[in-house]
Amino acid sequence: MDLRDKISTIHNLMAANKFSTAIEKCHKLIKIYPKMPYLYNLCGMAYQSNKQILKSVESFNLALHYEPESLPALNNLANSYKFLNQSDKAEILFEKILNHEPNNIKYLNNYANLKKKLTDFNGAKKLLLKAEKIEGNNTDILFNLLECFQSLGDLDTAKKYAFKILELKPDNTAAHRFISGINNYKLDKSNFDELEKLEKSKNFNNLSVSEKKDIYYSLGKVYEDLKDYENSFIYLDKANSILRQQINYNILNDEKLINKIIKLFQKFDFDKINKKPLSKKIVFIVGMPRSGTTLVEQMIASHSEVNGAGELVYLQNAIVQNFVEELNFNKQKIIEESLFEKNIVADKYLQLLSHHKFSSKVITDKAPQNFIWLGFIKIFFPNSYIIHCKRNPKDNCLSLYKNYFPSKEMLWSFDQEEIAKYYNLYIRLMEFWHTKINDSILDVEYEKVVKNPEIEMKKIISFCNMDWEENCLNFHKNKKTPITTASVNQARKPIYNTSVNSNEGFANYLEKMFNILDTNK
Q1: Can you state the angle between helices 453-463 and 293-301, rounded to 10 degrees?
Q2: Helix (H), strand (E) at residue 389
Q3: pLDDT tens profile 187-212
């Protein structure tokens, strides 16, 4: 077997997701051809696909050692830096690459993805519009543009892109699911017939799990709009069932985490903290996903002194990197760090935040599941504010069941029992935080915000130590803060109350979930 055949074998292994074997074969070839940059780049790609990002960086740098101007290696290295949240390094590389090949679709798209990660959707849009001019029928570019316009609040343009995609590829299920998310099928049944045809077609069983999921969620939304809750539930149940079958999840692991957090902070003395105020004030908006966190962030971020950062992973990552060893918390290190002026968590957080280039001194971070880390926020972010969003448990859990969440932190969201059990864990932890740091938390009820938005928002703005601005009530007109979550379509509308008591139509089909929630009363 010659070199070309051996390289082809490695590509086939990678296509079959056999990345460890591909890496082994790369290393064997590198021993024979130690100065061949292509092999180092290939090995880096295998490491990258195997989630061994630091190893991939080593390989790409070796490829560049032997061929400094290799654009594929530079591109791959930039993507690895993006995964590592080293966005400044990634940006420099993408700029260098596009100076050499300004019209390369792949490089434009990859740089746009970095811009999106940094919530610079206007920057991403500019790159993608250039790519569209070069290759107007590329559905990947078109869908990326759709997401940009959606996040920026231009739903009409996003919808035009969705239909353009369907003209080119009528069975593009992601475009169908986007349309279903913004359509009210009582008024507009566009794409309903196509969805039904896709679901009933002979080729349906040949579709991927992701494509089936798109169709099921879309039809669930259609029938809910038509108030046919039985059929809506049937499709939502199908979507969640096929997704749950794909994952390995045990609710006991989350229960152990909550127990460890409570034990860790049970006797912690928060009065001994010795941290200086930060240069930026962070408003942490926490709670269960789908509890109103996006709505509250949009209202706060409409204030002239605030930038909304959306859902950031920086806090959790900094905590895990510094204080978790073999799945356990290093309590002694946490105590010691709380007594020092030096702030290892906030320093890392603010460094990553600086890549977003926010001009305001007040920033919102609405990663809902930061409710787990409130003790760390109290220690390391002394001049921060914690807004806790609450919602009717049944409405909240139904909304979780109706929406798809790709995050690995939400593997509990595809099963009625697991959603309800996780919700009860969340309630237990929040009750604990209220016993420890109650004065640092403002509870905000979704139903009250919907009923009396001005009264509730004035409480929030006052809690955050800012002056009231009427802009906070015109949040739906604010395009300053992009939205990338499942709430994007709702949060671009004025306040409405149709989500209050939304569980009533589904009550007969969610008894398993609701019975577990009722045990928490």
Answers
A1: 70
A2: strand 385-390
A3: 888 899 999 999 999 899 999 999 99
Q: Are 472 and 303 in contact (CB under 8 A)?
A: yes
Return the half-sphere exposure (C-beta side, CA atoms, 13 A cut-off) of residue 200. Answer: 7
94 near 78, Cβ under 8 Å? yes
pLDDT band at 491 (very low <50, low <70, confident <90, very high): low
Tokens of 282: 């962070």
Contact at 8 Å (CB) between 60 and 52? no
| Contact residues for 382 (Cβ-Cβ < 8 A; gap 6+) | 273, 275, 276, 277, 278
Distance CA 360, CA 381 (A): 17
pLDDT of amino acid 325: 87
Contact indicator for 389, 285 with CB cutoff of 8 Å: yes
Domain ranges of the chain: 1-102, 251-518
Strand order of the β-sheet with 362-365 is: 306-308, 362-365, 281-287, 385-390, 441-445
Q: Tokens 């932190």 label which residue?
A: 409
Question: CA nearest 79: which of 69, 90, 71?
Answer: 90
What pTM was computed for the model? 0.90
How many whole angstroms separate alpha carbon 414 and alpha carbon 400?
8
CATH number of 251-518: 3.40.50.300
Q: At which residue do the structure tokens 């543009």 appear? A: 145
The values of phi and psi at residue 291, to 5°, are -105, 5
110-127 pLDDT, tens digit each: 999 999 999 999 999 999
Helix spans in 19-84 (H) = 19-32, 37-49, 53-66, 71-83
Cβ atoms 349, 269 nearer than 8 A: no
Distance, in Å, from the CA atom of 186 to the CA atom of 168, rounded to the nearest integer, reads 27
Among all chains, which residue has been given the structure tokens 């569980």? 503
Task: Evaluate whether 239 touches 213 at the Cβ level (below 8 Å).
Answer: yes
Tokens linked to 127 = 């790159």
Beta strands 328-329 and 324-325: pairing type? Answer: antiparallel
C-alpha span between 239 and 314 (Å, rounded): 30
Q: Do 242 and 216 touch, CB atoms closer than 8 A?
A: yes
The maximal CA–CA distance of the chain, rounded, in angstroms, is 75
Amino acid identity at 255: E
The fold adopted by the segment(s) 1-102 is 1.25.40
